[in-house]
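re: that chain from earlier
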Amino acid sequence: MNKYKNLYGRAKKHILSGNMLLSKNPEMILPKGWPTYFSKSKNIYVWDLKGKKYIDMMCLVGQSIIGYANNNLDRYVFSNAQKGIMTSLNCPEEVLLAEKILKLHPWAGMTKFARSGGEANALAIRIARAATGREHIAISGYHGWHDWYLSVNIKNKNNLSKFLFPGLNPYGVPKSLSNTCHAFQSNNLTSLKKIIKKFRLAAICMEVARNKLPDKKMLYEIRKLANKNKIILIFDECTSGFRRNNGGLHMTTGVNPDLAMFGKALGNGYAISCVIGKEKIMKKAQRCFMSSTFWTERIGFLAALKNLEILEKKRPFKKIISNGKYLNKSLISLANKYKLLIKINGIEAITSFIFLSKKHFEYKTFISQEMLKKGFLASNIIFLNIYHSKKVIDKYISALDPIFKKIKSFEDGLPIKKYLKSPVCKSGFKRIND
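^ sequence. v structure.
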């Protein structure tokens, strides 16, 4: 028996939801047609279990700025990991990494490390509540899967629709948490003021940017509101951190938070995340119980230390931004060529596009299906790393050209169902393993 035969079918039988990350679930991209599993990777290339090589335009979900299996990084991690990764004593690298990341952010005085972005967000919320003695949180953006965040949808399952997906049901979240977390749009100061007026907030937790560059004026006004009402301002930089500059995206705005979280690109694919914060606030949470065995393992610290060293020396941000702008212009030009209406979102290093059509998800599925044939792992979102050169982008656009041409014919009335070899991709957080 081939040990990989019907692997995803077996996964759905034995693994809750089929896999660990929703964004990597094949039913979110190309149901019944996606390779799903990889055998190896390098730079921007991924090989499936049959040995077929793909150019990965998705690099899900933004964790690898310096590319998959980076030689310098991996050599450093592997050689040091051979000395042991966990013992009864702590590894010295956690101190070295704390000093390094705090040096990048002079406004902060202390840190706490974890292994995932969701954990880092949960830590920040615990710290803010402990430091203020308050319970209520205002949120804007995506902050993980934990109860405190999903409780926003208990009274209305569409409260998170503008940040995640429509109709996200908070199954398993205690109803007693209802009305402790409140959503607002980052460009709507009035809605935040209403929340502040109604509730004594412990924190305002928000992404600095997701679909566009930060609104400096708005961040400044939110900072003023937080100061005036003695609310802890938290910036979630798990996605945006280290993708446009060496540190947090907030450093480009002149507005500092009280707490900030980093993940994903911090370790270039190795599991490491952190909360950094002002010393006075962090020390107030000293009595909190926040502890985990695997927060102490050495590999994440080793990877982050070496990755930050590489980022500091190579400073790949300018290249990624330049190539992101080139990609956006190329996508717009291609859409205009076939008179297709698309909307570009992102901060250059993270680009996405949507079709302004009721058939958007059909087109998204069709793109993944057809690009797969041409040797690309592609959807409608692109996380760039240093190996996505203009030459690679030209190759991607060239492969996409006849697909956009076909989509134009679908817009003009040709039935797309005859050309889809797969069910349409899922559009949101739903039960997807029925």
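Confidence is low (pLDDT under 50) at residues 429-434.
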